[in-house]
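> tool_call: predict_assembly(chains=four)
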Amino acid sequence: MNDALVVICLLLVAASATAAVAVRDPERQALVLAVLGLSLAVLFTVFQAPDVALSQLAVGSVLTPLLVLLSVRKVRRGAGPKTRRGTGPDRGGRDRTRPDAGPQPPGGRGGRDGATG
Amino acid sequence: MNGWLVAAAVLLAGGLGAAVWGVATGPLGRRVVTQNMTTSLVCVAVLLLAQGYRRPAYVDIGLELSLLGPIGTLVYARLLADDLRPDPPRAPRLTAVAAAGTAAVVIALAVASGPGRAAVKLLLVGALLITGNVVASRALAGGIPEEARHE
Amino acid sequence: MSVLPYLAAGWMFLAGCYGLATSRHLVHAVGCLAVCQSSTYVLLLAVGYRTGGTAPVFSDVRPGSRPLVDPVVQALTLTDVVVGATVTALLLALVVQVAKRHGTVDPDELSELRG
Amino acid sequence: MSRRLRMLLLALGGAGFAALFAAACLELPHFGAARHPYGERAVHAALARHTANVVSAVNFDQRAFDTLGEESILFAAVLGTVVLLRQTRGERQVRPEPVAVARPVRRYSLVMVPVALLTGLYVVAHGQLSPGGGFQGGVVVATALHLLYIGVDYQALERIRPVGGYEVGDAAGEAAYLVLGAAGLLGGSAFLANTLLPYGTFNTIPSGGTVPLLNAAIGMEVACAVVVLLARFLDQAVEIVDGSGE
């Protein structure tokens, strides 16, 4: 029975890790990271490591999401009010006028934008 | 081989699998609700595992999760309040199901472990978890208004 | 079954690296690094696991009554979790600083700024 | 570096890593194998010193010096964050307006602060017996305090959080760990050696020699460190704005 539990938890952890990478908006990624933390905690319980499960929960359920969300909030505010919502995460600082940057080569970017899982 | 572990495995395979899908796709509101429900689900699964492995010490994991999980959801409710406000996620039915399921499992576990400190601890974890889950759902459904900003 | 946990850890590490290399937002990159870091927890604990074993914590079981998993790797993983959390915090502080200085958190734009 | 070159490098590195890692996995001891020579010795050593939680015994007795290194990393990271996130010239501080959190959420938060604090202290105090320890408990304590920001108001948090005090607490926790280590040296054995105190009765709180004390020192350091860390981030996100006007 324990083998089945190990396999289930491993697959869940691998799936949520992949999702955490594929979700590109940091706020939404924070939510996936929280679920990854919870599945890791279950995996550690199944691996008979309650101490590690406790510290993973302590870090993953509140501390990391709080730090990530506070950073995102600060970064967005620093990048100007126009990027507050709408255009997606990938254009963090685009609204800043940067006279020294020169013209952008067309088609060099884009395509990947908004590639949420 | 015992029933508690089988129950935990079924709960994890079905529930947590759906949770990973729910939190990685769809509108923000649904993701946040999923995150909230995952706390209850994982906590119940850990309690089942503790009983299945005959290790009451593992209940401490459930205790910590029943406290920190809802606080984590409140973090999202607080810091994503602007994004959630146009369409506050309400999931009364899901919350009720989660609360009822938690209560049923916790009572079954408390009965199985017999009267004593362990049963009291289990009931405490269950009470904390249900309260936290309900309050966090309330917070997501517009319990925390947008913060006034100095622009 | 005998190597599945190791392979899962390797997969997580590779997925995290892919995310790091293709990230368009530094906060997202820090999250991907956290994924890489969690692969090490899985690997370490998998090495210490023992079929049918239980945790080497004797508050509720008699010593010697059941086989035990390896406590040394668990202690190592504990250290790993702590260090992972501090690394995340420090990197996020750096990201905030970068955003203040350069007004952007897109790695590509940052390298454009430099060159 | 162009995007294509970067992806090519990544693919090469990833393929190389995958091949080598898969080869290494096949040579590792099989998952779930019964032979754990270090683990068995660690369990014997922990039981000889009456420490019920072997993981704590490894962390605070057998590998206590490594834990000192780990806590120094935490200490240094907090220091780095404080330096990085200080208020710079051209930035000003604003008072955040109070928010009206819904009544049940507010009540829940106020009730949960002492409950979570108590749980955190319980986890720290029983670190040498049941799962848990200074780190886990310390984070719970720090989280409990921040429930005031999350569920009540930023001002409520500020009232119970003189950051200076927590900075002192952080340093005091680290110092207590060092002093306990040095006490072993003065007591005639090695640095951080667990030979000073009686080992006590197995499975009671004052068992395990210096393990509970080191545990408490770490608990204090972690709790204070997390509070200081979050205080810096909260300052940046809530209070400090760009002075040049947005």
